């Protein structure tokens, strides 16, 4: 029996929260979440995948029907890449440390470059507030972040922040996320470093 | 095996490094990186540039009176070899 979350007209992160609640309450079967925008579609999809569900998305009349169903295959523990570490880094600014802005930007560039040189890589990099300037047009570290992304590191920028700085259409690397996912990533990491 | 060769300029002063980066980046494709650990005597900031820019960059640096050093970095697999050039 399919269950449904009609999230059209809801603002973020409600579609994700309600979908999560429903997924947690069921033992088997599938859930269909209906959303009316791209960001909600991405966020619900990410949530479902993080809970090890399969996802199919169909677009109808401008709405997205996200079909979430459980995987039959046994999870392969060995498939987990060993080059990632259960660590999350939260970039709260485009500068490293406080003091000179010029120096802070130079240090940040050096930090992200050095991240590409060390394994295991952190599992997720989260960008909030002016940190989103690092993942968007004009950033000096986009190439380094793309390199990390290709190694399996999750690169996530806060949607509220991108919107605030008018950078939503200028994202160059990674995905858009919300506070719900940010808290989730931090809670599930063994170690979170805030920059 | 992944092999790589590039050059870095190491500086004694951070201000010198930042200023040189500003001058060079208008003309060349360069990057500021933390100085590789094998090079000890420096402020910690270096400018990285590719082999093909070697003559152009070092010519330009000759006008600079402040102290700097240029190193060649070669990497074959995980092994990194660093040689002082100037």
TrEMBL record, chain A:
The lineage of its organism: Bacteria, Bacillati, Bacillota, Clostridia, Peptostreptococcales. Belongs to the sulfur carrier protein TusA family. Residues 5-29 form the UPF0033 domain. It comes from Geosporobacter subterraneus DSM 17957. PANTHER family: SULFUR CARRIER PROTEIN YEDF-RELATED. This is Selenium metabolism protein YedF. Gene3D superfamilies: TusA-like domain. Pfam families: DsrE, TusA.
UniProtKB/TrEMBL annotation, chain B:
InterPro entries: Se/S_carrier-like. Residues 7-68 form the Putative Se/S carrier protein-like domain. This is Putative Se/S carrier protein-like domain-containing protein. It comes from Geosporobacter subterraneus DSM 17957.
């Amino acid at each position: 029996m399919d269950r449904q979350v009609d999230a059209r007209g809801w603002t973020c992160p409600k579609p994700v929260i309600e979908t999560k609640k429903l997924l947690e309450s069921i033992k088997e079967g599938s859930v269909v979440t209906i959303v009316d925008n791209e960001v909600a579609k991405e966020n619900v999809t990410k949530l479902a995948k993080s809970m090890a569900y399969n996802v199919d998305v169909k677009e109808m009349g401008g709405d997205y029907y996200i079909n979430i169903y459980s995987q039959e295959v046994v999870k392969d523990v060995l498939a987990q890449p060993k080059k990632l570490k259960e660590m999350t880094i939260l970039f709260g600014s485009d500068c490293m440390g406080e003091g000179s802005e010029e120096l802070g930007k130079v240090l940040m560039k050096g930090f992200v470059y050095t991240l590409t040189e060390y394994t295991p890589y952190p599992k997720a990099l989260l960008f909030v507030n002016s940190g989103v300037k690092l993942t968007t047009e004009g950033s000096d570290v986009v190439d380094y972040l793309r390199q990390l992304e290709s190694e399996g590191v999750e690169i996530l920028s806060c949607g509220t922040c991108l919107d605030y700085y008018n950078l939503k259409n200028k994202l160059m690397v990674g995905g858009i996320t919300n506070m719900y996912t940010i808290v989730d990533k931090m809670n599930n990491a063994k170690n979170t470093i805030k920059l | 095996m992944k092999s790589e060769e590039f050059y870095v300029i190491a500086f004694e002063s951070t201000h010198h490094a930042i200023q040189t980066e500003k001058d060079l980046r208008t003309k060349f494709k360069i990057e500021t990186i933390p100085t590789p650990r094998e090079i000890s005597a420096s402020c910690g900031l270096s400018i990285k540039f590719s082999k093909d820019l070697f003559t152009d960059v070092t010519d330009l640096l000759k006008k600079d009176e402040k102290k700097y050093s240029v190193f060649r970095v070669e990497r074959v697999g995980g092994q990194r070899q660093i040689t002082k050039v100037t």
